Amino acid sequence: MTVAIQAAGIFDVRIPDEFSRVVDTNTPALMTNATVNYWLEGPVWVPANGGGYLVFSSMGSDNRLKKLVPPTSVTDYLVPPANTLYNGNTLDSHERLITCQSGTAGLRVVMVTNGIVNTLASTCAGLKFYSPNDVVVKTDGTIWFTDPGYNGVTANPPQPGYQGGHYVYRFDPTNGNATCTPLITNVFRPNGLCFSPDESRFYLADYDARLIRVYSVTSSNTLSGGSVFATLGTGNGSPDGIRCDADGRVYSSSANGIWIFLPDGRLIGRIVTPRTVANLCFGGADWRTLYITAQPNVLSIRLKVAGAVSIKNLQISPTSGSSVRVAWPWPSTGFQLEVSPTPEAGAWTRVQEVPSVSNGLNLIQINPTNPAAFFRLCKPPP
Predict the structure, then answer these.
(1) How many helices (H) and strands (E) does the chain have?
(2) Which of residues 309, 325, 355 is at a domain's end?
């Protein structure tokens, strides 16, 4: 073990060559962007013209979503009704905020657009959730979330009118008849979750067991496997939020920092934090800033690698006439560009034009045949 100490942080380096591909240990480590004296969760980066901003959840008696405009400007983003808490947050492919509500008046997964909250899933097969916690969106539009029962109905399942246990769910809002399906039913406290960059693997934080599990994702969005990917072990707390970078490394929160694992499960090192880390996300204009909710602070650190989210980040801009220019990072790990007249349409069609490649981007110029056109990157079935 090699420990590199900087004025703004400590790096616990286990595999030096691999760690150096991710973090520059010769530069100051952690920046404190905000101090909010509540329990902080669910950071998500929202791209915007002129930069972008971070949305995160301030829980406890604060009960609201916060907005951080870097480096240090914090304001309220959304104040919910009484007894409603926001927890995990993410964006869908159209950059709409998808968030988990807990608290006795919440217990649902919602979409927030322009300050308006719309319910996506409040029941599954007629039974309520205990407390949705963390959420990710696959490129096909399906929404995957966990329900470990924190900050909501805390009595152990099964409870009358509620699900039979703490499950992982897949919600499909785009098939014309929205469905909710339990996917994992044998992990007592499923918490954080994320996909590998190519969406072939699904990672799940098994909170009580202090480990991360890995599953294979089929073309029909079912899961197989569930073996142990990595273990934090006694004295390091439990994994909560987890995310992948563009090369497939897995980043996990803990009681003592960010643990970074190779895709084969080997620990390459830690970014040590002074407080317990609940969650993390990649952000910034180039997706190379790691934002961390480490109580009671929002911290950030510049990395050498971008988050997996960058692979699926579309840039759409008008060109001459009615055509548009669509660009996304190259290589795209097998994702293909699709178009639809509405974001909820069940009949997305593949764009047949072959992209050109310039300056690390796939580029396509399209003349849409409909007044409105929505684009997404999606992994085709094998």
Answers:
(1) 1, 35
(2) 309
Q: In this structure, how many other beta carbons lie within 10 angstroms of the beta carbon of residue 363?
A: 16
The torsion defined by the Cα of 49, 50, 51 and 54, in degrees rounded to 10, comes to -70
Together in a domain, 51 and 10: yes
Q: Are residues 128 and 156 in the same domain?
A: yes
Phi-psi region of 145 (alpha: psi -120 to 50; beta: other; left: phi over 0): beta
User: Do residues 270 and 331 share a domain?
Assistant: no
Q: Hey, which residues does 47 pair with through a beta bridge?
A: 52
State the residue range of the domain holding 326: 314-378
Cis upstream peptide for 274 (omega within 30°): no
pLDDT of the chain, 382 residues: tens digit per residue:
434 434 345 899 999 999 999 999 887 779 999 999 999 999 999 998 778 999 999 998 888 999 999 999 999 999 988 888 899 999 998 889 999 998 878 899 999 988 899 999 999 999 999 999 999 999 988 999 999 999 888 889 999 999 999 999 999 987 556 789 999 999 999 999 999 999 999 999 999 999 999 999 998 999 999 999 999 988 999 999 999 999 999 999 999 999 999 999 999 999 999 899 999 999 999 999 999 999 999 999 999 999 999 988 888 888 877 788 999 888 877 899 998 888 876 678 899 989 999 988 999 998 877 777 888 998 877 6
State whether 265 and 343 are in the same domain. no
Output the domain CATH number for residue 52: 2.120.10.30
Q: Are residues 273 and 345 in the same domain?
A: no
184 forms beta bridges with: 168
CB atoms under 10 Å from CB of 245, counted, come to 25
Backbone angles phi, psi at 48, to 5 degrees: -155, 155
What is the rounded distance in angstroms from the CA atom of residue 144 to the CA atom of residue 302? 28
Out of 263, 284, 309, a domain closes at 309
DSSP assigned state of 311: G
Residues 94 and 71 in one domain: yes
Helix (H, G, I), strand (E, B) or coil at 76: strand
Closest CA to 193 of 163, 148, 152, 140: 148
Same domain, 304 and 356: no
- Are 78 and 126 members of one domain? yes
* Short-list 253, 301, 255, CA closest to 275: 255
Domain count for the chain: 2
